[in-house]
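Cont'd.
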Amino acid sequence: MVASQVALPTVVIPTVMLHPTAAAASAPATSESLWLQVLSPLDNAVVNSPQVDVTGSAPAGTVISVNDEILIAGADQQFMTTVTLDEGPNLIEVIASDENGNETSVLVTVTYEP
Amino acid sequence: MKIFRMIMFMFIGLTLLFASTQVLASPVNLPNAQGTKTPKGNGTDNATQRAEDKTNQNDKLHGKHENFKGTVAGVSSDSITLTLRDSSSVTVSLTSDTRMKFPGPKTSAPATIEVGMTAMVQAVRDQNNNFVALRVMVIPGKPSKIHRVGTVTAYTAGSSITIQDKDGNPFTFTITSDTKLLPAERADQLAVGSRVTIIAPRDPGTGGVTVKGIVIHPAKP
């Protein structure tokens, strides 16, 4: 598999806390910001395989959807799934959300050239 | 004089040999070659001609594939111009062979390319060194799916689910056999009162919003 270039797509948004005091006391994890980092493939990558592993990281327990796949980030804050590509340019949508209803997303374009 | 005759004899011999090989190799002597048309063979000839035209057209496209991503600055029936990230621009020809791709639900995905959209173009160069698009993919401004978090207020297994979000807004979704319940070990805990995240298309189709997946969050103590 050949992959090329560009910056890691990362989006960080602040968490909206409905009851900051209660939340901080009972569930310190919710004081974190929701963040999402897609580690691979890189945006604008060109690959020669019809399948590509999508890996990334987000806070533990974050709900992640990668195109039609649904995942939950593990305790190690990692997630991974495999996406099947069509020949030519493909769009990979990675969406993350937390239990407070915050949502963020990263769109990655990958070109499959056999 | 004797040597001169020998050279002339060899020259004439070689000339005859060369001429005979050219005659034997000419298309006239090959089956189905031009000049030996079979009856009612015009359809085959036309198909052959079209195939040759296509091959010639493809032969004119050369070089490695080049990919461009940018904002559509102009588009017509035969070309598209992109403004790239570095503010430069590139114009790529569109042909009848250019494949268009509009990711997202068919009910809401755009059917045409418009100025201001983000697009990715895969192109090669033609015989004049101009870019010709092989594929064009429009990149939507928003993801095609949405995650909705809320508390289940109504649930009929295999049929529908209604949740209320943190602002009190109700949302009802259709459940099908393709709907995934995650994590598997909490699937049987899905009930009214459960806290869930619904993954569904951002734009509803004509039959309502069908759930892709339901994530059941652990009950809080």
